[in-house]
Design brief:
Chain lengths: ~100, ~475
C-alpha cells in the first residue's frame, strides 16, 4: 500500500439511494480484489459537491458535473461490472501512486 | 400469564411500534448474520436508526411546505385546498413498525420464491422502493380493513408485496431485453406501468434505428435540471411566486406571518419553495442512511441463500444506455405536468404539487423504454404518459389516503397508484373481515405465472436444443 491511510471513495447518482448504493457494493468488491483499504460511501450529486473524497465514481451524466471534486474521477456505464471497475481503479490509483 | 401479556404489550408498543428501533434491530440482525466486525455491526445499526429519525424529520418539513404550497395555489385559483384528517408523519408514527415488518417478512418470502422457482429469476433490490411500496400497501390495507391487528396487516401486506416484487421485474423483462440484451439484471422500479404502457404504445411511432435520441444534442443549459434538489426548489418557488401574485392577500399575509410576522409574502414564497426542497433532501438523506446499511445486509443474506441470482435494480442503472432520452423524458413529463397543473387549477379541481423526483425518474425511465422502441418520439411519449399519470394520479388518489397518509399521493410513482386503486377496488369484494383474500389472490397469481413461465421456458430450451446450433437468438418472452 503506497498510501498510509484509508482511501476515501464516493459513489454518486442522481438522488443517492438506489444505483449509487449498488455501485458502492460493486466498488467494495473491486477494492477487496485489489487489496486496497478504502471506505466507500454513496450519495447524490448535490451532497457530493460539499465533500472531498480521493476518488469519485459515477455515470457520465453526473461525473461531468463534478469533474474537479477529487483527484480521481471514474466514469462507469455499467453498475455491476466489477472487473471493468477494478481495471479502471487499478490504472488510476497506480497513476496517483496510491497502488503499487 | 399476565407477565407474558405485559412483555408482549411492551414489545408491541416500544419495539414493533417504534420504527427507528425496529429498523435498527433488523439491521443489527442482518449485519450479525453476515459476521461483520463488531464496529461495523454497532455503527451500522446505529446509522440505520438515525437514518429513520432523520427521515421522519424530513417528512415533517416537507409536509409543512406542501401545505403552504397547496393553500397559496388554491387561493390563487379560488378553490379549496385539499383537506386530510391525517398526515404521512402521523401514519408512519402509527404504522411504521408494521411497515418495517412487512419489508422484512416480504423480503424473506421473496427470497424463498426466487429460490424455489427458476422462472422468478430476479431478486428485487431497490431498497427505497421496498420501503415505499410497503408503506403504500399498508396504507391501502388499513383503508380496507381499519380494524385489522398488526399481525394480520404484516402477513397480508407481506404476501401482496412479495408477489409484486417477484412479478414486476418479470413483466418488464421483454422491454428490458431490448435495453440490456445480456440480461444480467432486471428492472425494479415502481415506474414499471408507465414504462410498459410507453413501450407498447410507442410501437407505431417509428424505430430506434432512424430516430434514436442519442443522435440528438440537447442544450447544456438544461443540465442543472437533473439535480433534483435544484429543480424542485426552482419549480416550486416559481409556482409559489405566481400563486402569491394571484392569491387572496389576506390568506398569504396570514400564512407568511405564521413563519415570521415581519416577512414579505414574496420572500415567504421563496422560503417555502426552498424549505419544500430542503424537506425532500432531508427525507432522502434519512432514507439513504438507513438503506446504506439495510440493503447490503439483505443482499448479504440473499447471496448466501441463493448464490448467483440476477438482481433487479433501480431505474438509473439503465440510464447510461440513453442519457439524452432520460433528459427528453424529464423535460417533457415536467412540461405536461405543469400544463395539467394549470388546467386542473383553472377548472377548480385539485391543486397539484410537481413531484420533481418522480418526474425525473419515471419520466426518464419511460422515455428510455420509449426510445428503444421508437426513438425520440417514443421518448417524448414516455414523458407525456408520465406527466399525465402523475397529474391525474395525484388528483384522484389524494382522497383515497385521506385517513391514512395523503402525501403518498404527491410522492407517488405510477405503480403506487395502481396498487392503491387495485386494493381499493378489491374492498367491496374482500371487505374488512376477509382481508386475507388480498395476499391469497396475489400469491396465487404469482405462483400461476411462475409455473406457466417455467413451463414455457423449458419448452423453449428444448426447442432450441433441437434447432441448435445455428439459431442462437433467444425469443422474446
Amino acid at each position: 500500500m503506497a498510501l498510509d491511510r484509508q482511501l476515501e471513495i464516493l459513489a454518486v447518482c442522481g438522488v443517492g439511494m438506489g444505483s449509487s448504493l449498488m455501485l458502492k457494493m460493486t466498488a467494495e468488491d473491486a477494492l477487496r480484489s485489489l487489496g486496497v483499504d478504502a471506505r466507500v460511501e454513496n450519495t447524490d450529486v448535490s451532497t457530493a459537491r460539499g465533500m472531498s473524497p480521493d476518488v469519485v465514481i459515477g455515470q457520465g451524466m453526473h461525473t461531468g458535473e463534478i469533474a474537479d471534486l477529487a483527484p480521481v474521477v471514474i466514469t462507469i456505464s455499467d453498475f455491476l461490472d466489477k472487473e471493468g471497475l477494478e481495471a479502471q481503479l487499478r490504472e488510476r490509483l497506480t497513476e496517483q501512486g496510491w497502488l503499487s | 400469564m399476565d407477565v407474558i401479556k405485559d412483555i408482549l404489550t411492551f414489545l408491541a408498543d416500544n419495539v414493533f411500534g417504534q420504527v427507528p428501533i425496529l429498523i435498527g434491530l433488523i439491521t443489527l440482525a442482518g449485519l450479525l448474520l453476515q459476521r461483520k466486525r463488531f464496529e461495523d455491526v454497532f455503527a451500522g445499526a446505529l446509522r440505520a436508526t438515525i437514518g429513520v429519525v432523520i427521515l421522519f424529520i424530513g417528512i415533517e418539513v416537507f409536509t409543512g411546505g406542501l401545505t403552504s404550497f397547496q393553500t397559496v395555489l388554491a387561493s390563487a385559483m379560488g378553490t379549496t385546498p385539499p383537506k386530510a384528517d391525517n398526515t404521512l408523519a402521523d401514519f408512519l408514527a402509527d404504522q411504521g413498525g408494521t411497515i418495517a415488518l412487512v419489508i422484512t417478512v416480504a423480503f424473506l418470502a421473496h427470497v424463498l420464491v426466487v429460490r424455489l422457482f427458476p422462472a422468478a429469476r430476479y431478486l428485487y433490490l431497490t431498497g427505497h422502493l421496498m420501503f415505499w411500496i410497503s408503506t403504500v400497501t399498508v396504507a391501502s390495507l388499513v383503508t380496507i380493513a381499519p380494524g385489522a391487528d398488526q399481525l394480520t396487516l404484516v402477513l397480508c401486506g407481506a404476501g401482496f408485496v412479495a408477489a409484486y416484487w417477484t412479478l414486476q421485474p418479470l413483466w418488464m423483462r421483454p422491454l428490458m431485453r431490448r435495453v440490456m440484451p445480456d440480461d444480467r439484471f432486471g428492472f425494479a422500479h415502481t415506474s414499471s406501468l408507465a414504462c410498459l404502457i410507453t413501450g407498447y404504445a410507442a410501437r407505431p411511432l417509428g424505430s430506434r434505428d432512424k430516430h434514436d435520441t442519442e443522435k440528438l444534442k440537447l442544450p447544456r443549459q438544461l443540465s442543472f435540471f437533473k439535480d433534483v434538489n435544484v429543480s424542485t426548489a426552482l419549480i416550486i418557488t416559481v409556482i409559489m411566486l405566481v400563486g402569491v401574485a394571484f392569491a387572496d392577500h389576506g390568506v398569504v399575509t396570514k400564512a407568511a406571518a405564521e413563519m415570521d410576522d415581519k416577512l414579505s409574502p414574496w420572500v415567504w414564497a421563496v422560503l417555502v419553495g426552498l424549505r419544500f426542497a430542503g424537506g425532500i433532501a432531508i427525507l432522502l438523506f434519512g432514507v439513504r442512511m438507513f438503506l446504506g446499511e439495510i440493503v447490503p445486509a439483505f443482499k448479504g443474506f440473499s447471496d448466501r441463500v441463493i448464490p448467483g441470482t440476477r438482481p433487479a435494480l433501480d431505474a438509473p442503472t439503465v440510464f447510461p444506455v440513453a442519457p439524452t432520452a432520460v433528459m427528453v423524458g424529464f423535460v417533457s413529463s415536467t412540461v405536461v405536468f405543469l400544463v395539467c397543473l394549470g388546467v386542473f387549477a383553472g377548472a377548480g379541481w385539485f391543486t397539484l404539487a410537481p413531484p420533481m423526483i418522480m418526474l425525473f425518474f419515471v419520466g426518464g425511465a419511460a422515455a428510455l423504454f420509449g426510445n428503444v422502441v421508437a426513438g425520440w418520439r417514443g421518448a417524448v411519449l414516455g414523458g407525456v404518459v408520465t406527466g399525465l399519470t402523475l397529474a391525474v394520479g395525484q388528483a384522484v388518489t389524494w382522497g383515497l389516503y385521506e385517513r391514512t397518509a395523503p402525501e403518498l399521493a404527491t410522492l407517488a410513482d405510477p405503480d403506487w397508484y395502481a396498487i392503491g386503486w387495485l386494493l381499493k377496488a378489491a374492498d367491496p369484494v374482500v371487505g374488512g373481515n376477509s382481508v386475507w383474500l388480498v395476499p391469497a389472490v396475489a400469491v396465487g397469481a404469482m405462483i400461476t405465472t411462475l409455473l406457466l413461465l417455467g413451463r414455457a421456458e423449458k419448452r423453449r430450451a428444448a426447442d432450441e436444443e433441437e434447432a441448435a446450433p445455428e439459431s442462437a437468438a433467444p425469443a422474446e418472452a
